[in-house]
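hey so i finaly got around to running the thing on 60S ribosomal export protein NMD3 from Thelohanellus kitauei. pasting the sequence first so u can double check i didnt mess up the copy paste, my clipboard has been acting weird all day
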Amino acid sequence: MFPACIMFYYFWHKESQKLITHDAHCNSYEYHYTTLVSVVPICKDDLVCLENAYAKSLGLVNNILVCYRVTTHVHLVDPLTLQTIHLSSKDYYKKPFDAICSTHQLNKYTVIDVEPADHKNNSLADITILRQNFEHECPFVVRSHLGLKLRPGYCALGYDIKHANVNDSNFEKLNLDNLPNVILIKQSHSKNERRFARKWRLKRLRQNDDSSVMESQIDDK
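ok and heres what it spat out for the 3d tokens, dont ask me to read them lol
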């Protein structure tokens, strides 16, 4: 069973069959079937970076987006402008991209102050945060799409863009001086704050970049 964080809607698939046994008297056959399915490798709360020309064609101001939902489409939001786009699997594979940061790279920050940046939409806010477990750390202000979800004293999870080790060709073309220090992703809840503790943990599919190996295995069957 696939985990809920992975997109179910695939773009293409490949099938093969191999004859295992054949009974000529009963005219019966037994086949071994193998199916290869290509799944969009983007999960909820991932940080992605689009190619500059592709981002402009979608009407986006910034290239770095946050994946806030994965269904039959990949739902992305610009945390600095609140612009949203919804990509189907076909749209994704026209200009495929990978996540530049995943949830295992999230850091904890304490919210000190929340100031709305847009009077028409309070979701966009300038949030003063302080990184936890770091001595002599100074507070700094970041713009975020979580203005309605965060309050002073809350704990938030975010990606440290300035110090992240990102290996992505689209990200390397960006001017780092124009990027925010931190991109906040969501509010962090401690186990004591949760009213109903989960008895299970959400798992993720391991991403295999070498898809040619899988295809060759199918072709050999």
